[in-house]
From TrEMBL:
Gene3D superfamilies: Winged helix-like DNA-binding domain superfamily/Winged helix DNA-binding domain. This is DNA-binding transcriptional regulator, LysR family. Keywords: DNA-binding, Transcription, Transcription regulation. GO terms for molecular function: DNA-binding transcription factor activity; transcription cis-regulatory region binding. Belongs to the LysR transcriptional regulatory family. Residues 1-49 form the HTH lysR-type domain. It comes from the Bacteria. It comes from Goodfellowiella coeruleoviolacea.
Length: 286
């Protein structure tokens, strides 16, 4: 088409942004395919043959279709990938993750939600992917959990036995607050079993309705918050690991499309790890 408009193979090739030799080979291949000459080469100017003029309208339609397809491909690349994330993720961490993702041609649109809701959002196709809560053995990202207090604990680790109280001290017992993000069996049941094993009162492990509620209780008392070190820092609390009990918040990618899952997991896992306050587990390297 460009050759016919400019009357030369050199000018047409330049308009199409390709070497003249490539344009000549492509036209020759088309002529061989159709079994007819498209251009009359008997003069210095490249002019269409009658057959070439008959084919020109179809060629123009194909060019327009190709340009439309290129445009749609670019739009598809820019289409946001809606990702359900833990509602404990800080805004500045998510903004940083979104900025990094764009450098990988991934445009994220976040949907903060709790653990059960994130899994449901994927099942109902309301999001394309989600960071779901899983046991540590299945995790792509693993977040060690510990206990945080308003004042710095003296010990390098907090043992649950140290929270045990006698009958005379029951008015001063300390609670461990479990936030909604950790109200999942692989975390909640483990801390509950540890509570019972050392003889704490049932009420000494409590599930909060919201992280804000739990943090307020800890900031105004001697209670403790079960959380990650990153969360404790954001809340101005003093974090210590739990002695003798390994508690881990695990995350994996759930998506309805394998391509979406791989894009999130392989292109973004270091940055998601930073957002979650996690260390990537061995599963991420599989």
């Amino acid at each position: 088409m460009h050759v016919s408009e400019r009357g030369s193979f050199t000018g047409g090739a330049a308009a199409a942004r390709m070497p003249q030799s490539v344009a000549s080979r492509r036209i020759a291949a088309l002529e061989q395919h159709f079994g007819e000459r498209l251009f009359d080469r008997s003069s210095r100017r490249a002019t269409l043959t009658p057959f070439g003029r008959s084919m020109l309208p179809s060629a123009k339609r194909l060019v327009r279709l190709a340009e439309d397809m290129e445009h749609e491909a670019e739009r598809a690349k820019l289409s946001p990938l809606r990702l359900a994330v833990p509602d404990i993720c800080a805004t500045h961490d998510l903004a940083r993750l979104a900025a990094v993702a764009r450098r990988h041609d991934v445009y994220l649109d976040f949907q903060p939600a709790g653990p059960a809701e994130r899994a449901e959002l994927v099942r109902s196709y309301e999001v394309r992917a989600a960071l779901t809560a899983v046991p540590a053995t299945e995790a792509v990202w693993s977040v060690p959990l510990g206990l945080a207090a308003a004042t710095p604990p003296r010990a390098s680790a907090i043992s649950l036995e140290s929270l045990r109280v006698g009958r005379a001290d029951r008015a001063r017992w300390r609670r461990i607050w479990v936030q909604p993000e950790d109200d999942v069996p692989h975390v909640r049941d483990r801390i509950t079993r540890a509570r019972d094993a050392v003889g704490l009162l049932p009420a000494q492990v409590a599930v909060a309705t919201a992280l804000t509620t739990a943090a307020a209780e800890v900031l105004s008392s001697t209670d403790l918050l079960l959380c990650s070190a990153k969360q404790a820092e954001q809340l101005a609390l003093h974090w210590r690991p739990v002695g003798g009990v390994e508690l881990v918040r695990g995350f994996a990618v759930s998506a309805n499309s394998r391509d979406d899952a791989e894009r999130v997991r392989t292109r973004l896992w270091p940055d998601i790890a930073d957002c979650l306050g996690a260390q990537p587990s061995s599963v991420a390297a599989r």
